[in-house]
Structure formats: structure tokens, C-alpha cells
């Protein structure tokens, strides 16, 4: 799946207006690669995340970009499977899969699949009630 298709899938599944705006704008940037807005760190980090998903060949179908609570953290949630994972980009170009443990502390994982398996998704129950 290419970066535009990945982003369109995230856009289709995301409900947060601010996130949807970012994703729509990112798609515009992808369609116009000479656009200087790629110098904006927010979109560079988003590009790093989408690149990571693409390179890992992760099946993003059904997943939403749920939140970006701090500049480096991108939180994903699948409403259908009730699963979650985070991708952190603390340093530009370095993407780290993460999960929240039972104390809601961020923990690093080796893969997205490991992060999904270990993620304590109870935090999302409050958002879905």
C-alpha cells in the first residue's frame, strides 16, 4: 500500500476533526512533492510514521489515527478490533512502536504487533462510551 492509500485509510477511519484536517493536508503535500511544507516538523513526523507503516507492510485497514497528544506521539485505534498501538517519533527519522501499560506509562516495543498485543486499551473505553 502506498503512502497516499495509507493516509486515505487513516482519514476514512478517524473521527477527530483536527486529525482529519492534518491528514487531508498531508495528502495534498504527497500529491505535490515539491511543496516546501515538508520542512514543517509536524508533517515530517507524520511522514516518518506513514513511511514506517508502509515499510513494515502493516495492514492499516480499519485503523484510525486517534490522537497526537504530544508532538512525537501518534496514537492508533481500531474501532472494530478494539486494539491500539502508538508510533513515537522523538527524533526525526526514528520511529518507535509503543504501547501503554496498565499504569498508562509509555513502553517501547520491537514491532507494531508487539505493541498491539501489550497495549492496555482500557483508556479508549472512556472515549467510546
Which features does this protein show?
129 residues, alpha+beta, five-stranded antiparallel sheet, 5 helices, 5 strands
Would you give an account of this structure?
There is one protein chain. This protein has one domain (3-128). Helix 1 runs antiparallel to helix 2. Strands 1-2-3-4-5 form a five-stranded antiparallel β-sheet. It has helices spanning 3-13, 17-31, 41-55, 112-118, 122-128; strands at residues 63-67, 73-78, 83-91, 94-100, 106-108. Strand 4 and strand 5 form a beta hairpin. The protein contains five helices and five strands; from the N terminus they run αααβββββαα. The N and C termini lie far apart (32 Å). It is globular. It is of the alpha+beta class. Helix content is 43%, strand content 23%.
Number of separate domains: 1
Instruction: Choose one word for the global shape.
Output: globular
What structural class is derived from the secondary structure elements?
Answer: alpha+beta
Q: Identify low-pLDDT runs.
A: none
The DSSP helix count reads: 5
Major sheet details: 5 strands, antiparallel
Beta strands, count: 5
Strand order within the widest beta sheet: 1-2-3-4-5
Work out the strand percent. 15-25%
Quick structural overview:
Helices cover 43% and strands 23% of the residues.
Amino acid at each position: 500500500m502506498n503512502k497516499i492509500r495509507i493516509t486515505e485509510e487513516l482519514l476514512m477511519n478517524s473521527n477527530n476533526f483536527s486529525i482529519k484536517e492534518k491528514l487531508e493536508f498531508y495528502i495534498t503535500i504527497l500529491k505535490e512533492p515539491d511543496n516546501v511544507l515538508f520542512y514543517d516538523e509536524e508533517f515530517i513526523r507524520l511522514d516518518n510514521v506513514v513511511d514506517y507503516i508502509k515499510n513494515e507492510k502493516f495492514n492499516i485497514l480499519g485503523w484510525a489515527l486517534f490522537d497526537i497528544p504530544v508532538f512525537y506521539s501518534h496514537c492508533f485505534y481500531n474501532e472494530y478490533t478494539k486494539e491500539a498501538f502508538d508510533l513515537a517519533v522523538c527524533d526525526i527519522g526514528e520511529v518507535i512502536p509503543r504501547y501503554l501499560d496498565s499504569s498508562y506509562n509509555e513502553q517501547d516495543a520491537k514491532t507494531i504487533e508487539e505493541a498491539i498485543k501489550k497495549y492496555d486499551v482500557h483508556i479508549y473505553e472512556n472515549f467510546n462510551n
